[in-house]
Amino acid sequence: MKSRMKTTRKGSDDPEVAAVYCTHGDETAGKKAVEKLLEEKPDFRKGVKFVFANEKAFQQGGRYVDTDLNRSFPGSVESSSHEERLAADMMEELQDLKILDIHETLTSPVPFALFTWSDEETIETLRSTGVEDAVEISYTPGCGINHYGGEEVEVGPKGSREAVNQAYRLLKTFLINQGVLKGETDHSNPDIYRVYGTEPKPEEDWMPASENFDSVDEGDVIAEKDSEKAVADEEFVPVLFSDTYTDTGF
Ligand SMILES: [Zn+2]
């Protein structure tokens, strides 16, 4: 069966590692980072796959065509949804690989990683990305990494050159640490956050008054709108709070 994603293979042996980009068609930093890396024609010491996930959404300039791909796993080849068919193909393409799935976000600070499995290999893959903050998001149904494993990384701000630079750095760090590219290995030891609840998304015009990954005490102001304030009713660490509340990106 011909797969619905464009996959570029490099290196001579069977890939154990994959980099995925454009899971959301409008998040293009990963695509640009992969293109930049391939233009440099580095020596690939081990096999690797670069997977252009949702090319159709990218061509249309949208996040997805029928359904959010990152809520469409495990998918089905017979579905009427483009993304559910894609998800089924990706399950096959990415089986048993160590995966870096590059997303783009408007939340800050970036970069950070998202993961759902907590086995040794996933944590090792996480450390190989070099990120300092990571969030366990296994509560999210239909997420790709919930089904094929590995990590998502978020770079930003979405649409900026800085996002592309971050994506390129993470991609190179990951490929060096996985032995695909030559270089000095350097794993990070990220702080890990677990999502145990979500704050309801406020109505328009609310601005967060707290920084992601900075802990909030009971009584602290977490968001404000004109003279109104939302106050924390317990101590917690905000993650994925966005200053636009439009799209957290993952
Ligand atoms: Zn995304």
Structural summary, described in words:
This protein has helices at 29-39, 55-60, 82-93, 120-128, 144-148, 161-177; strands at 6-10, 17-21, 48-52, 98-104, 112-115, 133-136, 151-155, 191-194, 207-208, 221-225, 228-231. The protein is α/β, with parallel strands linked by helices. The chain has a single domain (6-192), classed as Aminopeptidase (3-Layer(aba) Sandwich). The strands form two sheets. It has an eight-stranded mixed β-sheet with strand order 1-3-2-4-7-5-6-8. Strands 9-10-11 form a three-stranded antiparallel β-sheet, with no helix packed on it. The longest helix has 17 residues, at 161-177. The chain is globular, with a radius of gyration of 18 Å. Zinc ion is lined by residues 23-24, 27, 103, 249-250.
Key structural traits:
single chain, 250 residues, alpha/beta, Aminopeptidase, eight-stranded mixed β-sheet, three-stranded antiparallel β-sheet, 6 helices, 11 strands, 24% helix, globular, binds zinc ion
- SSE order, as H and E? EEHEHHEEHEHEHEEEE
CATH class: Alpha Beta
Kindly report the name of the CATH homologous superfamily.
Zn peptidases
Strand order of the largest sheet: 1-3-2-4-7-5-6-8
Number of domains: 1
Helicity, as a percent range: 10-25%
How is the main sheet built?
A: 8 strands, mixed
Per the principal axes of the C-alpha atoms, what is the gross shape? globular
| Assembly category | single chain
Chain-averaged pLDDT: 89
Total beta-strand segments: 11
Question: Alpha-carbon distance between the termini?
Answer: 29 Å
Low-confidence segments, given as residue ranges, are: 243-247
Query: Helix count?
Result: 6
CATH topology: Aminopeptidase
The hetero compounds bound to this protein are: zinc ion
The radius of gyration computed from the alpha-carbon positions, rounded to a whole number of angstroms, is 18 Å
The appropriate CATH architecture is: 3-Layer(aba) Sandwich
